[in-house]
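User: Here's a structure from my thesis project, written as structure tokens. My advisor, Dr. K., wants to see whether a designed sequence matches the one we expressed. Can you design one independently, without my sequence as a hint?
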């Protein structure tokens, strides 16, 4: 990009004083949805960051998707691949009622009711095993799918805890013997908890929860990114993941707007072409060899002639950099019309 001191541009009404630098080979990015002209003296920015299409992990069990992936308000995200990872496939899911099955080699011929899943229920197989034979009764230990031991179950007494509830094993004509056991199979549908990790492996957000409904969705917004996770026909499993690519933007000039993201809300220059650019030209493709004022030495411009293409004003905030006026001053462009000595006065 060639930067030169411009002295031959007819900008007397706009540039009040100082020497300004102009990019004579600027490229203004195509805008396929453009419907209005781009006026001369429009405040410009550059596309610095963009997002690409999310990619599902090659070994994913679940066939859900991530869509509507886009930049969000706040500080621009880091360039690189963010990762969405399933940390708890059962979070928020709906557990089935557990059918209790007696082992075929049991000595006792007692039976069991159906188990009602509790708030802490785990997906998988619970084992209920007799550890103490009692006449017309028995004591059973209860082991979770993750091999945790819960409180004991007594024959004839309703069993309830945070895992299983309303479960009763009943005695029959032959008492239970030590080692007799029952199994309870629990399935959990839908749901899942995800975490978002940045390209350096740093945790960004760890509580992105899908609801326990078929085709349920959750919108996540963090680290300057947003997207929608949708449950599929096959539920997610622990370790399922999505790569969320954040890439460098085109680096081309785009009209500034306080509502834009990825660099579009950071002023970097002023379009100095003597002609407006038609909407049709911007829809058709990039506009090359354009003039952009990129800074200067104590350049003073007439703020009344500065054009804001969309949202924004000189007082609009720019992320952690003050206002538009402040950012222009760091470029050497002042929006003041009166000078007093070496000081510029608003």
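Assistant: Designed independently from the structure alone:
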């Amino acid at each position: 990009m060639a930067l030169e001191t411009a002295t031959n541009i007819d900008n007397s009404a706009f540039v009040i004083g100082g020497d300004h630098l102009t990019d004579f080979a600027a490229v203004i990015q195509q805008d396929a949805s453009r419907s209005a002209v781009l006026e001369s003296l429009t405040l410009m920015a550059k596309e610095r960051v963009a997002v690409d299409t999310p990619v599902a992990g090659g070994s994913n069990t679940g066939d859900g998707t991530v869509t509507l992936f886009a930049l969000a308000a706040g500080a621009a995200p880091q360039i690189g691949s963010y990762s969405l990872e399933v940390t708890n496939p059962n979070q928020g899911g709906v557990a089935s009622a557990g059918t209790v099955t007696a082992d075929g080699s049991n000595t006792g011929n007692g039976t069991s009711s159906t188990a009602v899943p509790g708030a802490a229920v785990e997906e998988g197989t619970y084992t209920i095993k007799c550890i103490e034979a009692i006449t017309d009764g028995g004591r059973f230990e209860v082991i979770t799918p993750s091999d945790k031991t819960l409180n004991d179950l007594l024959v004839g007494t309703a069993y309830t805890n945070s895992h299983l509830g309303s479960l009763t094993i009943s005695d029959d004509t032959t008492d239970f013997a030590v080692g007799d056991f029952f199994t309870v199979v629990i399935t959990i549908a839908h749901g899942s908890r995800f975490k978002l990790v940045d390209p350096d492996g740093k945790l960004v957000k760890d509580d992105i929860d899908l609801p326990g409904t078929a085709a349920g969705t959750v919108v996540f917004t963090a680290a300057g990114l947003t997207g929608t996770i949708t449950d599929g026909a096959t539920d997610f499993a622990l370790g399922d993941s999505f790569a969320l690519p954040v890439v460098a933007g085109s680096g081309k000039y785009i009209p500034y707007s306080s509502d834009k993201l990825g660099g579009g809300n950071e002023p970097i220059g002023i379009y100095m072409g003597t002609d407006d650019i038609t909407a049709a030209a911007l829809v058709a493709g990039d506009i090359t060899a354009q003039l952009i004022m990129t800074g200067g030495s104590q350049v003073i411009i007439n703020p009344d002639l500065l054009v804001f293409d969309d949202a924004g004003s000189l007082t609009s905030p720019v992320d952690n950099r003050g206002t538009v006026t402040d950012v222009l001053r760091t470029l050497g462009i002042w929006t003041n019309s009166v000078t007093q000595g070496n000081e510029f006065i608003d």
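When you compare it with your expressed construct, this may help: The CA atoms of residues 29 and 149 lie 63 Å apart.
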